[in-house]
Amino acid sequence: MLVEINLLPQKERGNKLFVWGLVTIAALVLLVGSFIIWEYFSLVEKEQSATIAIQEVQADQAVKKAQLQKSNDGKEVEELVSAIEWAQSYPMKTVPIIKEFTAALPHRGFLKRFAYSAENETVEIQIQFDEQRQSSYYLSRLKNDVSIVKDAQVLTVEAEKSEKENEDKTIQSEESIIPRYVATYSVQIDRKAVGNLVKKEKEKEDQ
């Protein structure tokens, strides 16, 4: 007796499984590839957004720094003008003294306060500097280069920050937050030298 076995349907079923397997693998590869590409572009977009944000912050800090510098410079000019107007209201003999003191100032140093005592012939002055070492330099100039000074000494040296710096704590760069130094001096005046100086000033005015 002859028995025939037809295996064709089984081969067809096996081929279908193989095809479905390839399709599944291809779909997974496509899905994973799409996810990787999406993640890549997402990271690129985030990086670009972060770069833009950093640039905006830097630009904002630059603007605030410029405003701070402008504010400080304007304040210095106002204080200097006030000091000049105040000095002009004093008796004439104190004006040459103030001129001598201001002529000895270092760069960006300026007179904040002037108190003259005629009884003991002493002057107490407050000077603002950008650097602390300038206070010692100015003391040396008072003693050695200003002819009307008999003696001088430093009473105090204190660091101070501008009102704008105290209000804006977000600007932390070294250039924007720099303390100023205010030194107080006691200066003994040579009355005879002041008299000669006043005489010279009067002669210049008469010419």
Automatic annotation (TrEMBL):
It comes from the Bacteria. The keyword Membrane applies. The keyword Transmembrane applies. The chain crosses the membrane at residues 17-38. Keywords: Membrane, Transmembrane, Transmembrane helix. This is Type IV pilus assembly protein PilN. It comes from Priestia flexa. The lineage of its organism: Bacteria, Bacillati, Bacillota, Bacilli, Bacillales.
